[in-house]
């Protein structure tokens, strides 16, 4: 969406043109807060067939004019031609906004327009109504839209020039009941009344008692749910629509805060069901506006200031009383605390999740590494654990250790008890071993193993 009213910018930074969509045009038609004129630049035949309500027709000049030659009009006074329409004669003195539309988009070069306008301002050629700029030396009918748009920009004073680029057919498709010549616009109850403002496209509308009481308007807008914030107003169609009723007075001390959450829940239910909702009070200024602002603050995470600015661009007459404004700001603090708690909880959950992921990542490999292969390396030449096979050498069979008077064997526990013959054989082997050992000891230590001559006892 292109904003129409821009804030906090210097006058020299204001845009040359404002562009709007279908919903903006619809809301401008309901806006009673500013004066406006809508210019239809299509042919007279197209305008008479159907046009936007309250629009004024400034068609291309007929080709039968005496000045029309070879597809062009010579010496054409555009300012005088526009002034022939009583409503549009003093457009730049009476109206705050001028909206133009045609049957097709406007083709123009914004840099060229800005350069042309700035050069004319510097030369002072647009100071009077009879300046040279009023006379078009050569005008092609195909350039009519661009020529008139340029004229509006050159002649404007404080009036905002707004362009609807989508063309009349698109607006008629989106809002047929806002066009003259359609059946719905001529039906009873939906003629000259102002419609509610459209806050959210094809969903949420803000208005007053007249809108809630007009059956034709509710049908045209396809309303399914209604929020009645006025205690003094009855629910007119309880058998046709779903209602939320708040018996509330438009007083600063009235407790509208308690209705914020229930109304928001009611609007959400309507949205889930694919419906459309009208929020109204007596005038659509204070009570109904307050709960719409609360909804925008909650669902679209807006501050009070942002929600108010957004809503005022759609409906310029909104003005909650100071008591309701205070309650909205209190609600903003409540929402901020809720958001902080939500973020804190989300961070804690994320930390817990990261911790679980890290712990699983560390423990699982360790558990795999700690699965040691306890198989006998002597019996299994291919250990099941690649870690052990790559890090631990396979132990060799230790050599037998032979001691005197003892035979040691690593596999001694597996020897069966010897038989008698075996015992004799082992004894012979033992004697031979001991004999060999005695010889070795004598050779090494002759003094220790030499026979001793003991003195004979006299006894």
UniProtKB/TrEMBL annotation:
Residues 258-315 form the Tyrosine specific protein phosphatases domain. PANTHER family: DUAL SPECIFICITY PROTEIN PHOSPHATASE (PTHR10159), PROTEIN-TYROSINE-PHOSPHATASE-RELATED (PTHR10159:SF414). GO terms for cellular component: cytoplasm. Residues 415-459 are annotated as: Disordered. It catalyses: O-phospho-L-threonyl-[protein] + H2O = L-threonyl-[protein] + phosphate; O-phospho-L-seryl-[protein] + H2O = L-seryl-[protein] + phosphate. Residues 195-337 form the Tyrosine-protein phosphatase domain. This is Protein-serine/threonine phosphatase. Residues 421-444 have a biased composition (Basic and acidic residues). Keywords: Hydrolase, Protein phosphatase. Gene3D superfamilies: Protein tyrosine phosphatase superfamily, Rhodanese-like domain. Belongs to the protein-tyrosine phosphatase family. Non-receptor class dual specificity subfamily. It comes from Dictyostelium firmibasis.
